[in-house]
Amino acid sequence: MSDELKKYLEKSVLCWLATADASGEPNVSPKEIFVYGGNNNILIANIASPVSVKNIASNPKVCVSFIDVFEQQGFKVKGSAQVLKSGDASYDSYLAKLRELADERFPIKGIIDVNIEKTASIKAPSYFLFPDVSVEQQVQNGLKTYGVSRK
Questions:
Q1: Among 10, 84, 105, 133, which is most exposed with the fewest C-beta within 10 angstroms?
Q2: pTM listed for this prediction
Q3: Which sequence spans correspond to the domains of the chain?
């Protein structure tokens, strides 16, 4: 996993997990508790993900995307996922990593372990339309557009 991908993974507040069932019916859902697992994998807390879990059981191919909303760039990761439960190998050490982000108030029912097979950067179309715009200008434009400020 590249350092740049890790950087965006760490500073993104949501990721989106795309799955498909055995017949190919797609599903995408936001996930807020996720970390780099340390073994070319991404760990995602299963807090309220019954459709994602069901889909992974029949079709382990997934796509995870995450971006910095103000920079308007990030990454798309494709790979194979498995759902780990208490008692499975690595579960306790992976749970400890996720608990660094979320305490016991978040009911982690399992861990979606995504083995990274392919990565690609994601950039907003404005990066291609206006190639002279810097990342900082992109951030400032986003802050202005959405009427927010960064601390």
A1: 105
A2: 0.90
A3: 3-124
Give whole-number Cα distances, 32 to 46, 66, 145, in Å: 10, 10, 24
For the cut 90, the answer to whether the pLDDT of residue 66 exceeds it is yes
Q: Answer left, alpha or beta for residue 47, where phi above 0 means left and psi between -120 and 50 means alpha.
A: alpha
Rounded (10°) CA dihedral 78, 68, 16, 117: 10
73 and 65 Cβ atoms separated by less than 8 Å: no
The tens digit of pLDDT for each residue in 22-64 reads 999 999 999 999 999 988 999 999 999 999 999 999 999 999 9
Per-residue tokens: 6 = 């890790």
- Cα 144 to Cα 87: distance, rounded to the nearest angstrom: 48
Domain 3-124 -> CATH class = mainly beta
Beta strands in 6-88 (DSSP E): 15-20, 26-31, 34-36, 41-46, 61-68, 73-84
